[in-house]
Amino acid sequence: QVQFVESGGGLVEPGGSLTLSCAPSGMILGVAAMRWFRQAPGKERELVAGVIAGGETTYADSVKGRFTISRDNAKNTVYLQMNNLKPEDTATYYCYARVVRFGGSDEYWGQGTQVTVSS
Predict the structure, then answer these.
(1) Closest Cα to residue 100, out of 78, 76, 79?
(2) Is 17 in contact with 79 (CB distance < 8 Å)?
(3) In terms of pLDDT, which residue wins out, 53 or 59?
(4) What are the residues facing 52 on neighbouring strands?
(5) CA-based nearest residue to 37, from 47, 25, 29, 24
(6) Alpha-carbon distance 116 to 119, whole Å?
(7) With bands split at pLDDT 50, 70 and 90, how would you rate the model's confidence at 54?
(8) For 61-68, which contacts have Cβ atoms below 8 Å and span 24 or more sequence positions?
(9) What is the distance in angstroms between the CA of the first residue and the CA of the last residue of the chain?
(10) CA atoms of 85 and 49, how far apart (whole Å)
(11) What CA–CA distance (Å, rounded) separates 107 from 91?
């Protein structure tokens, strides 16, 4: 069973930067869409950014201009470059992938990586 593994979380001061990555643990046919979500304590999970196979991207209003999502189609890997981080960005970040297979697709979630923005 393929899993998607996230990395890159940690503790950073306000105004700092982090880059998250999410990659499959094994071979897959391809990925149609990849997204980053986040969930803060006591809050619902929210979409942060998404990118489709063709490269079109979407962002939550709260991160526009600060976060950049990108993907490496050869590695089926998605990245989230986060700049000018704010305390309100503190959350567990999850990657999502819609993986293509013969005859359809499957959804995968990563295990989550913690991002804490604090001085």
Answers:
(1) 76
(2) no
(3) 59
(4) 33
(5) 47
(6) 10
(7) confident
(8) 62/88, 63/89
(9) 40
(10) 15
(11) 22
- Given a cut of 90, whether residue 29 has pLDDT beyond it is no
Say how far apart CA 9 and CA 26 lie, in whole Å. Answer: 22
Q: What is the pLDDT of residues 62-113, one digit of tens each?
A: 999 999 999 999 999 999 999 999 999 999 999 999 999 899 999 999 999 9
Per-residue pLDDT, 37 = 98
What pLDDT, on the 0 to 100 scale, is given for residue 53?
85
Rounded distance between C-alpha atoms, residue 13 and residue 118, angstroms: 5
Q: State the DSSP H helix or E strand holding residue 4, giving kind and residue range, or none if neither.
A: strand 4-7
State the amino acid at position 77 in one-letter form: T
Tell me, what amino acid is at 67? F
**CB 16, CB 85: distance < 8 Å:** yes
